[in-house]
Amino acid sequence: MRTLKLIAAGIILFASSSLHAQISVSLNIGSPPSWGPVGYAEADYYYLPDVEAYYDIRATQFIYFGGGRWIRSRYLPREYRNYDLYSGYKVVLNDYHGSRPYRYFNDHKVKYCRGYHGRPQRTIGYNNRREYDNHREYDNRREYDDDDDDDDDDDEGHGNKHGNGHRRD
Asked: Which DSSP helix (H) or strand (E) runs through 105?
C-alpha cells in the first residue's frame, strides 16, 4: 500500500512539473519589442515612417524594400544603423493581420511620410527618469545589420540581399 502511494505521488509530481515547463516555454512568443509603443498588445505590425520599413512583431523581423524586393531580416539595413528605435515614431497597424503589410506601402508612405508623428508615444521600455528616451539603451549590433554579408534571416524565398532570390506574393 505504501508503495502504491509513493508511485501515485511521483506521477502527480512528474505531471505537474511537465505542465509547468510547457507553460513557461510559450510565454514570450510574439511579444512586442521593448522599443514598441505601450498599449498595443494585439498588433501584428508596426510601420516605421522614418525608415519606410515594417516590423513584424510575431516573427521579430523588420521588412524593408531593397534590391528590388521586400526583405525580411532581424536587422534594419546598414544605412539605418544610427536610427533610434526608441524615439522614432511607430505607426501601429491594428487593421492588418496578413503576412504582407507592404501591399499597402504606397498608402502608408503617403499617409505617414518621413518625420510623421501622431499622438505622443511611450515605449514599453520607457525609462521613468526621463519623459522620453532619446538616448540609446540597446546594443546597436542587435538591431541593425552592420555587414554586407548575406544574413540568412530572409524568408519566404526572398534570397539574399544581392537580388539573387525571387519574390513571392
From this structure: helix 105-111
Query: Residue 65 in contact with residue 153, Cβ under 8 Å?
Result: no
Q: Residue 118: is its pLDDT beyond 70? A: yes
Distances (CA, A) of 5 to 1, 15, 111: 6, 15, 68
In sequence order, what are the residues at sequence separation of 6 or more whose Cβ sits closer than 8 angstroms to the Cβ of residue 16? none
More confident residue, 78 or 24: 78
Grid coordinates of 39? 498599449
- Reply yes or no on whether the pLDDT at 138 is more than 60: no
Find the helix or strand (DSSP H, E) in which 141 lies: helix 140-143
- The three-class DSSP label of residue 96 is coil
- Residue 14 has what pLDDT? 67
Categorise residue 39: left if φ over 0, alpha if ψ from -120 to 50, beta otherwise.
left
Reported as a pLDDT band with limits 50, 70 and 90, residue 42 is confident
What is the C-alpha to C-alpha distance for residues 150 and 141, in angstroms, rounded to an integer? 16
